[in-house]
Amino acid sequence: MNALVTGGTGFIGSHLIEFLLNKNIEVFALVRDLHNLKWLTGLKIHLLEGDLFTVPPLPSGIDYVFHSAGLTRAFKAADYYTVNQLGTASFFQSLRSQKILPKKIILLSSLAVVGPSSAGNPVQESSSPLPITPYGKSKLMGEVEALKFKDVYPITILRASAVFGPRDRDFLQYFKWIRRGILLSLASKQRLLSLCYVKDLIKAIYLCFQKELESGEIFNIANQKAYKWDEIGRAAGKVMGKKLKKVKIPLPVIYLAALVSGIGGRISKTPSIFDRNKFKDMKQDGWVADIGKATEELSFYPQYSMDEAVQETINWYLKNNWL
Predict the structure, then answer these.
(1) pLDDT at position 258
(2) N or C end of the chain: smaller count of CB under 10 Å?
(3) Pairing of strands 286-287, 192-193
(4) How high is the pLDDT of residue 281?
(5) Beta bridge partner(s), residue 229
(6) Integer Rg of the chain from CA
């Protein structure tokens, strides 16, 4: 059995590749730069140099394809569409032109496709997509491009909530404040957020490999419980043995911080993790996903509690001198 993975040098893709290797699955990884393998260095995998627009010749007997390559941060909105929409279209066209016929293709998408939840109602797969940022809109268009091929390939789409775990940098800055003993909190009401530990997401992907599913099925993937940011912070503080001082920050101050962070990113020529789009996400009523469909059809049950997931993540940060 073998699998082709795009985005393998990234946070989620690298965890998936390690999992597949542990299952004795032969892995082919599409990578842009053979001299910058990041987490793939030293792994016994087949490296295929290229990108979504220049896919090299692929082995004919690919069993499974996992497409996780995508853009999560950018200076220009157009860049999201170039990678997440047009790149996905190009990749699928390459599979067809090379006559690759896998048993299953899994596309990693995002809860950002559907948009925020409201009035305490978790979003479902059947909810009308209402993305509010260029990232979310581009991921929606990526889904549209993939589904054009659903009669050619057996395609499954996973809409993941906010994913965290070892190697993730998006939650790192927040945990750095916790290590200083500071619990940053919104001065307005607390929003609820669905989270997904990376190992639980990998489990969901593997379940998709094993299940017979109708092509074009979409599943929300997240923990069963939604959390407030303060709960996440306190869990991190407990792991690090910190007595936390809660500091409430008004939304206008956070918006100003987002502007400054965005400008700093342009100066450093590195897109910022926290910008106006992230602020727009942050001020919504909530980002809560209903995972009932994944539970029923995939038998997906997250294995990690919040405390366990935060413990593993912070231990990894500390071991690798990220915190």
Answers:
(1) 78
(2) N
(3) parallel
(4) 86
(5) none
(6) 19
Among 225, 185, 227, 221, smallest CA distance to 206 is for 221
Residue written as tokens 């996440």?
Answer: 232
Please state, in angstroms and rounded to a whole number, the distance separating the CA atoms of residues 265 and 277.
14
- Which of helix, strand or coil describes residue 159? strand
On whether the CB atoms of residues 300 and 291 are closer than 8 A, the answer is: yes
Question: Quick count: other Cβ atoms within 10 Å of Cβ 212?
Answer: 6
Q: Residue 43: its pLDDT value, please?
A: 97
188 pLDDT more than 80: no
Beta strands in the chain (DSSP E): 2-6, 26-31, 46-49, 64-67, 104-110, 155-160, 162-164, 182-186, 192-193, 195-197, 217-221, 227-228, 245-249, 286-287
Count other C-beta atoms under 10 Å from residue 104's C-beta.
20
CB 83 within 8 Å of CB 71: yes
What value does the mean pLDDT take over residues 141-161? Answer: 97
> Can you tell me the distance from the alpha carbon of 26 to that of 114, in angstroms, rounded to the nearest whole number?
34
**Domains in the chain with CATH codes:** 2-168+194-224+288-303 (3.40.50.720)
Q: Do the Cβ atoms of 88 and 107 come closer than 8 Å?
A: yes
- Supply φ then ψ for residue 318, to 5 degrees: -65, -45
Tell me how far apart the alpha carbons of residues 64 and 4 are, in angstroms, rounded to a whole number.
6
193-201: average pLDDT:
97
Tokens of 51: 């990108």
Residues facing 165 on adjacent strands: none
Query: Which amino acid is residue 50, in one-letter code?
Result: G
